Every structure is written in structure tokens, then in C-alpha cells.
Amino acid sequence: MHIARTIDDLRAYLAPYRQATAFVPTMGNLHEGHISLVHQARAHGEAVVASIFVNRLQFLPHEDFDTYPRTWESDCDKLRAAGCDVLFAPDERALYPEPQTCKVQPDPALADILEGHFRPGFFTGVCTVVAKLLNCVQPRTALFGKKDYQQVMVVRHMVRQLALPVHILACETTRSEDGLALSSRNGYLSAEQRAEAVQLARTLQGMAKALRGGHADIAHLEQQAHEQLGSRGWQPDYLTVRRRSDLQAPLPGDPLVVLGAARLGTTRLIDNLEV
Ligand code: PAF
Predict the structure, then answer these.
(1) What's the CA-to-centroid distance between 126 and ligand 1, angstroms?
(2) CA-to-CA distance for 190 and 267, rounded, in angstroms?
(3) Residue 184 beta carbon below 6 angstroms from any ligand 1 atom
(4) Residue 123 near residue 111 (C-beta atoms within 8 A)
(5) Which residues on adjacent β-strands are paired with residue 21?
(6) What is the largest CA-CA distance in the chain?
(7) pLDDT in tens, the chain (275 residues)
(8) Nearest CA to 52 among 96, 112, 108, 5?
(9) How far apart are CA 270 and CA 200, in angstroms?
(10) Is 167 a known active-site residue?
(11) How far is the CA of 219 from the centre of ligand 1 (A)?
């Protein structure tokens, strides 16, 4: 596995591939979800490129940028074992050599709701770094996990509106045996919280089941879900039913997705389920 620390090195190394690469952007602290993306990437490019970059721009000042788990050695081992060909791992000076004052402002209709409402500016940070990483790697396909459902939609919309020459592939969420969606932030949970954490997925499953069974009172379903998690000691930001096309309130017949974000102690977890 070649490790590129600078954009010039990356571009020189990838030049012979002429954009026939598949790309998995990450912030490191890799788990089976990331590794599954690397495996899936193999089918979409002659070379598989991953990146590790903890992107300051997508963290609010009170969030966990400084403490975000950085696990370089084990990440490299996992990527090598997964057959990753190139790892792009710039430091902040290499990716942001000057203050990144030129930013990608995603469509507020999609980016200022749900995650964007509770984490203002989050998707501007994500779009800015993803656009920059895509420019650096110039892949044919970029793979993202559906656990970050809204992120995939925002990135897809950016790619379409800016006519970026890349195909965005959304991959299924990897879950642990009990159903908890894998996430780097699961590592923050105590043993007791880890046992409780699956309740977020279970609550969304309950909502999805009710909807499949013809339950039409969405407001009631959302309120019940809030109460259910709240009574177990969670602090939900949202537990909501949206239409898949644009994450707005659904009309009858719309394909649906249920999405949730809730805090367990100081750890904020998100998950979703297509109905
Ligand atoms: O999903 C993530 O890990 C990050 O948001 C991403 C896409 C790597 C951008 O920093």
C-alpha cells in the first residue's frame, strides 16, 4: 500500500490509473463498516484509494475534533489487509495549506435539516472536504456508508449540481451482531451504554414495522419513539419519518426512511432504516 502525504505525491502516483480508481474517504479509526467499503470498492476501480483525514471544518467548536480517535497504526494494518492500494493521509497543512475560505455551500433545503439543524455548518464542512478530496483523487467512483444517510444525499446533490465526474455509491450499513450500526463514536460508550446503544436501532425498527403495517399517524409514531428512548435515559435530537427523495415530510405513497439521532450520556449516535 502506497501512503501519499501530499496532493502532489498522490496525483503523481495515481496518474497511470487515469481516474479508474474507486475511493473511500474516511476520518480513520476504521471499523468493519469502512473495511466493507474498501472491499466493495475493488469491483469499481483498478486501484482502491482510501483517505484518512479528520476534517476540522465539519466539527463545531464544542464537538470532539481534538479527542476524535486517531488510530494510525491499526488503520494502516486494516487497510493493507483489506487490499487497499493507496492511502491518502494528508496532514492539515497539506490539505489546507492556507485558511479554507472558499467553501462549498450545500443546498440548505437538504443540508440545514436534521443533522444540519443540530450541527450547523456540518455539511458545509463535509462538502468542502469531500469536494477537495474528490479533486485530489479524481476517482471514477466514491463509496459512502448509508449510516450517514443525509450525508450521502447531500454529497450526491453536490456532485450532480457541480457536475463532478464521479459516481457516488451508497453502501449498506454494517451492524454488529445485536444490530448496532458500526461507528467510530461507539468507542466512546461504556460497557453499560454499549449494551443500551442498540435501542436506537430497535426504536427505528419499531417505527419501520408500524409504517409497513399501515400505521398512518406519523406524528404519533415520532412522539412515541421520543418517549420510548427518553424513558431509557436517552436525549433524542430527532426520531423522524421522512420521504427518501429529499428528506422532507412524506406524502402518501412516498418511499420512506426513518432517521434518528440521540445522545446516550455524552455520545451522540445516529442511525436510519429504509422502510
Ligand atoms: O463520513 C465521514 O467519515 C466524513 O464525513 C467524510 C465523508 C470522510 C468527510 O470528512
Answers:
(1) 6
(2) 10
(3) no
(4) yes
(5) 47
(6) 57
(7) 999 999 999 999 999 998 899 999 999 999 999 999 999 999 999 999 999 999 999 999 999 999 999 999 999 999 999 999 999 999 999 999 999 999 999 999 999 999 999 999 999 999 999 999 999 999 999 999 999 999 999 999 999 999 999 999 999 999 999 999 999 999 999 999 999 999 999 999 999 999 999 988 999 999 999 999 999 999 999 999 999 999 999 999 999 999 999 999 999 999 999 99
(8) 5
(9) 8
(10) no
(11) 31
Residue 2 forms beta bridges with which residues?
Answer: 86
Find residue 239's DSSP bridge partners. Answer: 260
Best of 151, 156, 158, 185 to mutate for ligand 1, by most ligand atoms within 8 A of CB?
151
Residue whose C-alpha cell reads 467499503 in the numeric block: 37
Report the length, in residues, of the chain. 275
Q: Which atom of ligand 1 is nearest to the CA of 25?
A: 8
